[in-house]
Amino acid sequence: MxxxxxxxxxxxxxxxxxxxxxxxxxxxxxxxxxGEAGIDKLSNTEYDLIFLDLKMPGINGVETLIRLRxxxxxxxxxxxxxxxxxxxxxxxxxxxxxxxxxxxQKPIESQDLVRITKAILEGVGAY
Amino acid sequence: MKVQFFQLKSxxxxxxxxxxxxxxxxxxxxxVEIEHxxxxxxxxxxxxxxxxxLLYRRWNAGYGGVYVPVTKKTQPNPxxxxxxxxDITTPSGRTLTLMNPAYMTRQVHExxxxxYGVLGHITSLNPIRPQNAPDPWEIKALEExxxxxxxxxxxxxxxxxxxxxxxxxxxxEKKCLKCHAKQGYQEGDIRGGISVSVPMxxxxxxxxxxxxxxxxxxxxxxxxxxxxxxLGAWRLKESESECKRTHESDEKAYTxxxxxxxxxxxxEKTIAIGTLVAGTAHELNNPLTAVxxxxxxxxxxxxxxxxxxxxxxxxxxxxxxxxxIVRNLATFSxxxxxxDVYEKASLTxxxxxxxxxxxxxxxxxxxxxxxxxAEDTPDIWMNATAxxxxxxxxxxNALDALKDSDKKELNIDVRRQGEFVRMTFADTxxxxxxxxxxxxxxxxxxNKPVGQGVGLGLSAxxxxxxxxxxxxxxxxxxxxxxxxxxLLPIERSKQNEQTNTCN
Lengths: 127, 503
Fold this sequence. Notes:
- The complex is a heterodimer.
- By secondary structure, chain A is of the alpha/beta class.
- Chain A is 46% helix and 19% strand.
- Chain A contains five helices and five strands.
- Mean pLDDT of chain B is 82; it is low at 494-503.
- The two termini of chain B are 37 Å apart.
């Protein structure tokens, strides 16, 4: 059974391109446009990896991370960011408080996305 | 300003001329006054002498003559021989002779001549005593009296000496007829005159003294006036120059202020652009991610033989270029702000890494590189990612500049300089013209052909160096290569003012 990935990003182009790349690589991909929708999704579906955007309307990426971790989800979370200054401090605080996550910088190319995903989900050395 | 100076000069000249004329007139007038005073003093003296003559003559005539002892000097007056009792003998046997006014006047005049040098002469156009005949001046005066004048005076030379000559008529009084009736005179007739000559010498001496004083005083005052005028003009000129200097220094200050204002406006503009650029750059990352993934997906599902395959490759290539630009923009605006990423790291290692990264290009373009690192170069407090970006940008710039150069060398030198580590990037590339040097750190400044650079590389470098409290300077000449000297502090010093200079 193939692994399941959730992409939370308010930008439809990003959602679409991630879905295209990851689906093409053979993974199952769900996409949602907000943090709230992502948390809803997590309550009824098991995921193996989450790609999470930082800057979104409603609850932002950092708050989404905190909520899903607080809900007991231990799924690896990859924050894909364009390094918006305003979220960096929040993210740092979250890291200090023990919330686990990885950070990936946009723009991200399909080959990198596949390599990283493979490394996390299949334990294949990507670097 | 020159015209004004000449105006001032001519004003001063006119003033000096007017001043001189005033003094010349004053001096002349005063000299005339002195002369006039001398003459008038002499005239007063002469008049006094005449009046005294008149007085004792009247006294003498009042007695009808007085008897005086006959001496060797005072012999009986032969012109009185017709007068009874001209000579008398006192009971003791002394001989006395009658002295009439004329005789007495003559003797007094002789005495005055001896004592004071004052000459007196009793004269008439019709004298009883021939020696009393008038001289030419006296003849003229006597003629004037006949026409009604009562006094004639003037300065005249007598035997080479100057005298004030004054003459007044002698009017026939009743007492005079005792002796002069025989000449046919009647009471009230002008019988003759007494002329008095006062020597001008002593008066002239006083006048001369006064003249000298006058000349000296005038000269001093005149010079003082000229000096004052000159000084005034000089001070006017000085204050004018001072004004000019003040004006110039005001202008300079104003220019400096204007420049600073322009700089401030420029830096505000730069900050505004920075903020805008950073925001835009971040927003571009989403669509770029999408484009990169979409095109990669398409390419993956396209046969390499398909004519669309290279087109898809081009799309990816160009999208990556966009990503590079965006990264540079982001670096330009906020690199180095994050304290947590600062650490002690080795510049040499970073340079090595960059060279490795660019090794393909360096080899491919036939560029010879040297890295000279002094042994005691310490690690520095840095944001390693940012410094890597800095070195990458500088190296890329140098490689771009060397592309069309005959001599392709990039020499990097690293050594300690006090509290800093100095890193020198010197290439043998095309360099840059003087006029452009001051702009190279400006955002969006580029010398590269359109499409090969957005002009953020050096601006980003400046941002990185600024964040580290360092300094960047550059030296260049068109066609003679470019040299960047970067100073980065060894210890953290965020408060250091960053400066950039080009020469």
